[in-house]
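User: Can you recover a sequence for this backbone? Please restate the input before giving your answer.

Assistant: Of course. Working from this structure:
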């Protein structure tokens, strides 16, 4: 695959991600992957893409000259967050919204998934994130490349890592409990309004969102 097929835009939306509606009930390519692995619902009005952390996720920060994990709901603008290659970067915005998690086993994106310590040995505690939230990885399998291109029309990169949506990672587990949960996302300071970073959530390397996504597209309440 050539570099021209890669994109380093930060988040999936109508501008940065023209195939966005395929993940939200729009047309699905006929060569789409097995319904046993990922289920795309029938055509319905599109809903917002929700790449977020569940409440009580711990974000690796830098406070009082030491690295410490902070619950995502306690992170506030100005706090320093450890990034993969960009050092400690201040939080610009943090957003919050409510998500109704379904009680079935369908592997759809806008729901909560569990990344367990069993399947992700590098993590400190089980991590709960939405299906759209991307894990940053060194490599993608051929089927993951096909799935991502079918859905997003490109391969996305953050801090030189490939972005693998959690619901496309077969190591993640569907949370089948029907419940209403608070979810959060973070945008760090960046001169580029559209760019994001790799950060550590419960020890797993994942993405932040861009300032543009959080401010204009997420429909989240911004916390002060």
């Amino acid at each position: 695959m050539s570099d021209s097929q890669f994109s380093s835009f930060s988040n999936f939306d109508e501008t940065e991600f023209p195939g966005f509606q395929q993940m939200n009930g729009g047309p699905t390519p006929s060569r789409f992957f097995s319904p046993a692995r990922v289920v795309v619902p029938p055509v319905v009005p599109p809903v917002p893409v929700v790449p977020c952390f569940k409440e009580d996720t711990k974000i690796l920060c830098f406070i009082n000259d030491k690295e410490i994990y902070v619950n995502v709901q306690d992170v506030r603008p100005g706090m320093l967050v450890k990034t993969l290659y960009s050092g400690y970067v201040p939080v610009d915005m943090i957003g919050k919204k409510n998500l109704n998690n379904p009680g079935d086993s369908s592997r759809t994106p806008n729901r909560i998934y569990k990344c367990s310590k069993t399947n992700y040995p590098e993590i400190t505690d089980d991590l709960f994130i939405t299906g759209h939230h991307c894990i940053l990885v060194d490599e993608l399998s051929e089927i993951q490349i096909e799935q991502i291109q079918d859905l997003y029309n490109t391969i996305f990169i953050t801090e030189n890592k490939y972005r693998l949506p959690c619901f496309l990672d077969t190591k993640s587990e569907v949370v089948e409990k029907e419940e209403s949960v608070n979810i959060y996302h973070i945008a760090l300071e960046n001169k580029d309004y559209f760019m994001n970073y790799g950060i550590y959530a419960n020890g797993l390397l994942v993405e932040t969102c861009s300032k543009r996504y959080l401010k204009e597209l997420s429909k989240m309440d911004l916390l002060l």
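That completes the design. Residues 40 and 207 are 23 Å apart (CA to CA).
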